[in-house]
Amino acid sequence: MFKPDQCDFCGKCLESCQWMDVDQSDAVLWMKQMAAGQETPVLQHCITCYACNEICPTSANPFDLIASLQHRHFSVTPEAAIQATEARYFFSGQMKEAPRHDRIMTTCVFEKSHPALFQGSLYDLPKVGGKPFFCWVLFSHMGAVGVQNAHAAELVSRLAATGAKEVVCFHDDCYAILKKIAPEEGIHVPFRPVHLAEYLVERLKAHRSRIKPLNLRVAYQRPCASRHTPEKEGYIDELFSLAGVERVEREYDREKALCCANVKLLLGQGDPEPDKRKNVMDALNHKADLLVCLCPMCIQALSDTAHPLGLPVVFLGDIARMAMGEISV
Ligand code: SF4
Ligand code: SF4
């Protein structure tokens, strides 16, 4: 949620944007115009990477302002297309009985689409997923953040119905909804959302004697939703350290991370290939052995560019599995 009282119109958010070339005077002017509810070129050109929410020095959430205006003015996706997509994801069937357990994992829609990412002992816990547990973050990438927020309470209540005290979020987007967006929308979350990286760290520590250090250099691909909850970055670093891998200090990591760019296709904003190549070349130039992704969508987006250049793309969970000797390097 945009916090106008915390915005001093410094313009840093738009000036720092890696997807638009905005000078300070336009940045200040456009932020003032958008805070007054007006349309600016930002609404068409923002690729919804959420980075400016993290960059804003006063935590005023500038992307949330952009997102609400994109939806109000249907700047990037026509209203009919938003409604059709919402109908496609809406679950109107009978809920199956959910597992009841103190700790469950929510898999969003990925267990069916990416079964290879759920193999091994790390995923041996009760799981929920599929359409009833879809997190709707896709809609903020479509310029329809209101759809995402409108369904947040339903997701929280379905997860709460399992009686779980802790919900491990396989997907970073689900964690962002449960940890930040739902509470900001005034929705009470009656369980503790656990980030996948925190869970993996806990599991590695519990099996420390099985860990064989991988001795690899990895480039990390931060997913866009990680900008909503940057405080869990420490778990990513701890996981790499436990697994014996070095996170290379490349240009497009940490605050300067580059979105995987596939959202440009969704928004009709041109060819994402040059952006992907820039990202992959940065990893190679910093002598990374692997490109490690937390989000399955980033794996999908970057593999076709990285593989021909000799850079394997690996899921974060598979780093933990490799360190535990479950899969080979
Ligand atoms: S949202 Fe933050 S970075 Fe952007 S103008 Fe306001 S205070 Fe500055
Ligand atoms: S969300 Fe990303 S693309 Fe959009 S204005 Fe912010 S930094 Fe730029």
Task: Give your account of this protein's structure.
It is globular, with a radius of gyration of 20 Å. The protein has helices at residues 12-15, 24-35, 42-45, 51-55, 62-72, 79-89, 110-113, 138-141, 145-150, 152-160, 172-184, 196-206, 233-243, 263-267, 273-285, 296-306, 316-323; strands spanning 103-106, 127-128, 166-169, 192-195, 216-221, 245-247, 290-293, 313-315. The longest helix has 13 residues, at 172-184. Helices cover 43% and strands 9% of the residues. The N and C termini lie far apart (42 Å). The chain is built from 17 helices and 8 strands. It is α/β, with parallel strands linked by helices and 329 residues long. The protein folds into 3 domains: 4-72, no CATH class; 82-194, Rossmann fold; 200-323, 3-Layer(aba) Sandwich (Rossmann fold). The strands form 2 sheets. Strands 2-1-3-4 form a 4-stranded parallel beta sheet. The structure holds iron/sulfur cluster (2 copies). The site of one iron/sulfur cluster has 13 residues, from helix 4 and helix 5. One iron/sulfur cluster (SF4) is lined by residues 17, 19-20, 42, 46-52, 63, 66.
Q: What is the approximate shape?
A: globular
Give the domain tally.
3
Query: What is the structural class?
Result: alpha/beta
What's the rounded overall pLDDT mean? 96
Please report the distance between the alpha carbons of the first and last residues.
42 Å
User: What is the helical fraction, as a range of percent?
Assistant: 40-55%
Radius of gyration, in angstroms, nearest whole number: 20 Å
**Number of beta-strand segments:** 8
> Largest beta sheet: what is the strand line-up?
2-1-3-4
CATH class categorisation of the largest domain? Alpha Beta
Q: Count of helices?
A: 17
Q: Unreliable segments (pLDDT under 50, ≥5 consecutive)?
A: none
CATH topology of the largest domain: Rossmann fold
Ligand roster: iron/sulfur cluster
- Largest sheet, strands/sense/barrel: 4 strands, parallel
